């Protein structure tokens, strides 16, 4: 009976491993007109890409109460995701990217950008 319990526990217990989130800015400058684009690469500790992750972007101005109203995430495969944000006003913005993938610890990274 004890062996069966140990085997069931080992089967059901799945520890979360840390994932690596790298964010690259596709644009050197963010402009009010047109979408702002970020490229993400999500990998496991061995450097293997993580596909089918949930990517949750959000952006807000740091000097006033303004949020990005529209955002879109496009998965390209091999752990690469493209994030398009509509930053509708010039000034300082904080862009937060959260990622969740089955079997991995959730990740979060915040970038500070200036929109012209």
TrEMBL record:
Residues 21-97 form the YtkA-like domain. Keywords: Signal. InterPro entries: YtkA-like_dom. Residues 1-19 form the signal peptide. This is YtkA-like domain-containing protein.
